[in-house]
Amino acid sequence: MTVTAKRVREAATLLKGSVIRTPMLPAPMLSHNFGCNLFLKLECLQHTSSFKARGALNALLGLNKEQLKHGVIAMSAGNHAQAVAYHTKRMGISATIVMPAQTPFAKVARTRAFGATVVLEGRNLNECEGTVNRLIHENALTLIHPYDNELVMMGQGTVGLEMLTDELDLDVLIVPIGGGGLIGGIATIAREMRPNIKIYGVQTELYPTMKLAVAGKKITCGGETLAEGIAVKKPGEVTLPVIRSLVDDILLVNERELEWSVGALVEQQRIVAEGAGAAGIAAIHANPSLFSGKKVGTVICGGNIDPRLLASILNRNMAVDGRIARLRIDISDEPGMLAAITASIGKCGGNIVEIYHQRLFYDVPAKLAKIDAVIETRGPDHVDEIISSLRATNFQVRQMENNAT
After folding, report:
1. Which residues, in sequence order, are CB contacts of 88 under 8 Å at separation 6+?
2. Of the candidates 225, 215, 228, which has an alpha carbon nearest to the alpha carbon of residue 178?
3. Winning range, highest mean pLDDT, from 61-65, 355-359, 361-365
4. HSE value, Cβ hemisphere, 13 Å, CA-based, for 86
5. The pLDDT value given to residue 192
């Protein structure tokens, strides 16, 4: 089977009514900040909050009666697992999902809630392969690969068909890359609909797998990344030649750019995205001149982010932007000092988030104390104003770098 634009269109017909036709919306604030005309394809609003629901269903619809009878198996740390589990439950097919042992409890619980049998094995997807192969052999299961499958790729390509149907005059497409199924499918249909469109993939600096493979270089990758959804160690054999042929370039983004992008989507567009889902925004943030003045479309490919991680990212972004600051204030240990500090901060319009009163540690003299005040501000100039006010009241003050202790 060959991946073609015609088959992507056929997949769209098959999937109609069973997946959500997600919105393609303008992003006015981000467009203003980046100097481009930016549109976001919100696959974070798809079933199971990820584009994976498309490719998984297209692959399931391609199974024969014997395969349907025995059931399917998939290996995934999250989004593909949930997509396969969701559709197999709906279609009455048995599904086994092999997940790394360290997969967050919430993702395991959601996958099980859809009725799939979950097997926890190994530290990563590569270590799951042996278990998957054994279960296939023992139970005659059919593997639904997360990306290295032509039916999966054509299902994912329906994202691009919808994007260019809604906004045919896009100059640029930016698509996150893990194994390459999403960008492979999108690039296939995009080259037919708009042959001269620029297509950029995005990977993390820690996992530049596809970029290295396209260049014919040795693949080295690893490390903890916010974009675990695209942290793939081995590119797809089916997807690699498609990407090599149709994608203009693959851009790399770092962890700080990913964090900023997750936060910016929440604050500026009220969109919740996981790290991989925000990778396209990170690529524009890192390369603004590449997209300046262009009409750009990017896929917010998933929204499955842990709430605690999201909260941490938002707070870290505020600290970096100077909207949250931690001040260390030396005081004499006597009544009224804390009241004087809070009055000084309040007079400047600062909002005290937390106060730590330290007097029991050996590095603090017995007659002195230290106050650590975490303050919400309007930005760096406002922080300077508050510090000046405290110093004018004869307090010794210093700002702790990046909200550190």
Report:
1. 60, 71, 72, 94, 95, 114, 115, 116
2. 228
3. 61-65
4. 22
5. 97
CATH of domain 1-321: 3.40.50.1100
The helix/strand/coil state of 42 is: strand
Query: Which tokens is 151 given?
Result: 């039916």
pLDDT value at residue 190: 98
CATH number assigned to the domain with residue range 324-403, chosen from the 4 options 3.30.2130.10, 3.40.50.200, 1.10.760.10, 3.40.50.700:
3.30.2130.10
φ, ψ for residue 358 (rounded to 5)? Answer: -110, 120
Question: Which element (helix H / strand E) includes 358?
Answer: strand 351-358
pLDDT single digits (tens) 244-279 = 999 999 999 999 999 999 999 999 999 999 999 999
Residue 360: per-residue pLDDT: 52
CATH 3.40.50.1100 segments of the chain? 1-321
Q: Let me know: does 3 contact 245? Beta carbons within 8 Å.
A: no
Distance linking the first and last C-alpha atoms of the chain: 58
Write the DSSP string, 236-252.
-TTHHHHHHHH--EEEE
d(CA 18, CA 91): 11
Place of tokens 């851009």: 251
